[in-house]
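Inverse folding, one chain.
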């Protein structure tokens, strides 16, 4: 799928940055509203305190936040640094993807994949949940888009579809197996956890769905997210993602412990999975991704 870019590198990077800033602004809406079961399309952007609609000139990514010194123009409430940081981070990430893949059909695919990963990571970091709209929705997109891209590029569609499906099964299967085995060993050893099964609740039995999908220390959202990742990067990419996520999760976890100054602070696994998947996309030269 390699091609010589007809656009100048600077122009391509500038377009990717501008596009990434806009997508990052939209992801701020997704991250704020999706965990609250609110529509991401309506109403338009509003101040979280005074509910005043944000004018277009106050909604320019990063720049408006800087000009307003991180406050609402109307009520003066502080607007967190996460908003411009997310916008700028997605912009830089899109630049990296554009420079890695050039003006090819792969670039928008990986940009969309990256946007979904960023949204999942931020939501899991803030709420310890991963919405199905991202994980399962992304899984369907991956299973369809990867073979479609292969068809447009003249590659073997069946091989691409098989690789996507196998990646999804392997990704979800690995984490599910770990969670299921840990749950069964915990029961055998008589271990109890703060939130599993919970005060006054009986341990799940094989006849219940919870027995198969409710595990201590591992949310089923992580299983679905890695299945989504596998649909995009394939089975070998899943292995690279997990290796990078294990190392990245260790670093992120230690940093979070240092910030919180406690060892039991809740910390989702999605940020590490997202980091591992993004490294897999940006650095396939490690030899693990075809």
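Residues assigned per position:
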């Amino acid at each position: 799928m390699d091609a010589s870019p007809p656009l100048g590198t600077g122009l391509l990077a500038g377009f990717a940055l501008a596009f990434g800033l806009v997508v990052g602004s939209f992801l701020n809406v997704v991250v704020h509203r999706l965990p609250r079961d609110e529509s991401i399309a309506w109403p338009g952007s509003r101040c979280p305190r005074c509910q005043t609609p944000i004018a277009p000139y106050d909604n320019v990514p990063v720049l408006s936040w800087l000009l307003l010194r991180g406050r609402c123009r109307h009520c003066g409430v502080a607007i967190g640094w996460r908003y411009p940081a997310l916008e700028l981070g997605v912009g830089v990430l899109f630049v990296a993807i554009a420079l890695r893949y050039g003006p090819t059909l792969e670039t928008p695919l990986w940009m969309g994949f990256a946007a979904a990963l960023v949204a999942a990571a931020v939501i899991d970091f803030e709420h310890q949940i991963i919405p199905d709209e991202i994980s399962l929705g992304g899984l369907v997109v991956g299973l369809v888009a990867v073979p479609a891209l292969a068809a447009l590029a003249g590659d073997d569609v069946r091989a691409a579809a098989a690789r996507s499906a196998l990646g999804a099964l392997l990704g979800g299967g690995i984490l599910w197996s770990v969670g299921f085995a840990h749950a069964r060993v915990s029961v055998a050893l008589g271990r109890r956890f703060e939130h599993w099964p919970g005060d006054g609740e009986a341990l799940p039995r094989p006849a219940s769905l919870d027995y198969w999908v409710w595990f201590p220390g591992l949310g089923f959202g992580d299983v679905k997210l890695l299945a989504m990742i596998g649909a995009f990067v394939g089975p070998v990419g899943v292995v690279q993602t997990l290796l990078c996520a294990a190392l990245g999760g260790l670093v992120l976890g230690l940093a979070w412990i240092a910030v919180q100054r406690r060892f039991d602070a809740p910390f989702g696994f999605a940020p590490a999975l997202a980091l591992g998947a993004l490294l897999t996309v940006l650095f396939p030269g490690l030899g693990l991704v075809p």
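DSSP finds nine helices and no strands in the chain. The mean pLDDT is 90.
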